[in-house]
Specification:
Keywords: Membrane, Transmembrane, Transmembrane helix
Radius of gyration: 19 Å
Distance between the termini: 24 Å
Order of helices and strands: HHHHHHHHHHHH
Number of domains: 1
Number of helices: 12
Structural class: mainly alpha
Number of strands: 0
Organism: Streptoalloteichus hindustanus
Protein name: ABC-2 type transport system permease protein
Helix content: over 70%
Largest sheet: none
Shape: globular
C-alpha cells in the first residue's frame, strides 16, 4: 500500500496529469456540445453522437500515461525508485495501476459528462441508456481509457523518451491501423484484428447511427466483450515485454 501511495503522490503532484485531464474533459464535452448545438432536429441526436469526442480524449490520456513514466527516466527519479524497491516489476505494475485507474476515472467523467452536456443542449432528445449497446458506448469508455493507458505506460517504459513514446502511441492508434487497410487483398482482414479497432468495436457494436465508429472493413470477427478481452490481452502482452526489457537493461 505504501508503494501505491508513493506512486499516487508522484503522479498527482505534477502538473501534466491535471492539465491532461482538463484537456481531455474539455475536448470530449466540447465536441458533444458542438454536435448537439448544430443539430436542428433533436430526434437526430443519439447516444453515439454524444461520444464524438471520445477518441480525442483518449489520445490526451495516452499522452498523460506515457509522460507518467518517461519523465521519470528523463529526470532520473526512476533510479531512486528502483534503489528503494529493487523489485522493478512491482514498481512498474504499481505505477501502471495508478495511471490506469486515473485514466479510467477520466474516461467515465468524459463519457457521462458528454452525455449530460448533450442532454442539456438538446433537452427534447431521447438519450436514454436503454440498451446494453448504449451502456457500453458510455460506461465502457473508462475501460478503454484504462487499457489504453496501460499500453502507453508500457511503450513509454520501452522507449524511455517522451517525444518518441508519444509519437509512437499516437501514430499507431491514429494512422498505422488505418493504413493497414491499404494492403491489397488482406488489408481489410488484418484491420479487423487491430487492437484499437477492436476497442472501438467494443463500444460501437450494436449502434447504427452515424458517427458510431462503424468498422469500414466489414463485420468484426469477435463480439463486443470478446473484443474488449482482445484489447486487454494486447495491453498485457505489451506490458509483459516492457517488464522483461526493464529487468534486462540498465536504468
Amino acid at each position: 500500500m505504501s508503494l501505491l501511495a508513493v506512486e499516487r503522490i508522484k503522479l498527482l503532484s505534477t502538473r501534466s496529469p491535471w492539465w491532461c485531464a482538463l484537456v481531455a474533459l474539455a475536448l470530449t464535452t466540447g465536441f458533444a456540445a458542438l454536435v448537439s448545438a448544430t443539430l436542428s432536429d433533436a430526434s437526430g441526436l443519439t447516444v453515439a453522437l454524444t461520444q464524438t469526442g471520445s477518441n480525442f480524449g483518449l489520445m490526451v490520456v495516452m499522452v498523460m500515461a506515457a509522460l507518467a513514466i518517461t519523465t521519470e527516466y528523463r529526470f532520473g527519479t526512476i533510479r531512486s525508485t528502483f534503489q528503494a524497491v529493487p523489485n522493478r516489476s512491482l514498481v512498474l505494475l504499481t505505477k501502471t495501476t495508478v495511471v490506469a485507474l486515473l485514466a479510467g476515472v477520466i474516461g467515465e467523467l468524459a463519457a457521462f459528462g458528454s452525455w449530460g452536456v448533450a442532454k442539456l443542449v438538446q433537452p427534447a432528445s431521447d438519450l436514454g441508456l436503454d440498451s446494453a449497446a448504449e451502456w457500453r458506448q458510455v460506461a465502457g469508455t473508462g475501460l478503454i481509457y484504462a487499457l489504453a493507458a496501460v499500453v502507453a505506460v508500457a511503450v513509454g517504459t520501452l522507449v524511455r523518451h517522451s517525444a518518441g513514446a508519444i509519437t509512437l502511441v499516437l501514430i499507431w492508434s491514429l494512422l498505422v491501423e488505418k493504413m493497414v487497410m491499404l494492403i491489397p487483398k488482406v488489408g481489410g482482414d488484418i484491420y479487423r484484428w487491430m487492437p484499437f479497432n477492436m476497442a472501438g468495436h467494443f463500444q460501437s457494436s450494436g449502434l447504427s447511427s452515424g458517427g458510431d465508429g462503424t468498422n469500414p472493413a466489414g463485420d468484426m470477427p469477435l463480439g463486443p466483450w470478446a473484443s474488449l478481452g482482445y484489447f486487454a490481452a494486447f495491453a498485457a502482452v505489451v506490458m509483459t515485454v516492457a517488464l522483461v526489457v526493464t529487468h534486462r537493461r540498465d536504468v
